[in-house]
Amino acid sequence: MASYNISNVESNIDASGDSSRKKRRKIGGGGGDEIPSSSSSLTQTTTHDREKSSMIRWKSDSEQQIYSTKLVEALCKTKRSSSSSSSSPGKVRKVRETADRVLAVAAKGTTRWSRAILASRHMLMTNRKHRKVKVTGKSRLQKPPPIRTKTTRLPPIQKKVQTLSRLVPGCRKLPFPNLLEETTDYIAALEMQVRAMTALAELLTGSPVNNRSGSTINASS
């Protein structure tokens, strides 16, 4: 009789152990399915918030006013430092470089494209200093012939992504989601730059300037 009771207790313990293990499997399986979806939604929310903040930053009136003021100061400084004998294409290039540099400074180094513009400016100034030493005659090194490599054809969508990565400074090797974030911020910054340059050009030519509220401002007033 005692052995019968002991066997019943052991069978009950085994049954309860099996049921608890099944419950743990169900709980673990359910939790594993929900984690990727929550992380994916969190990533999408973060990307959306970044795009929204970049659009607000470059479209605010205060940001526009600060950039326009810094741009005028930088252009005046560039005009004083440049010689009067400079060619017209050279002057246009300096104006474009100055506008891009002020735009990169306004981004405060928070984006790859702004850091790339500032880094290229620093490299350009460094190369100009070293270019003063002229290389002539036998000391001039000959460039090796280019090595031809076989090019593989990319799908149309990858070609478009590759072209886009070349248009945005410093974004050639970025993953596609990060490239979209940089492109969104860069386009919004360029739109602000165009508004400032258009207003400056209209002021210099004496034509009325359209402000953000839609009214016109006469340059002579």
TrEMBL record:
This is BHLH domain-containing protein. Residues 1-14 have a biased composition (Polar residues). Residues 141-190 form the BHLH domain. Residues 34-46 have a biased composition (Low complexity). Pfam families: IBH1_N. Signal peptide: none annotated. Residues 1-59, 130-152 are annotated as: Disordered. One of its GO terms (biological process) is regulation of DNA-templated transcription. SUPFAM superfamilies: HLH, helix-loop-helix DNA-binding domain (SSF47459). It is found in: Nucleus. Keywords: Nucleus, Transcription, Transcription regulation.
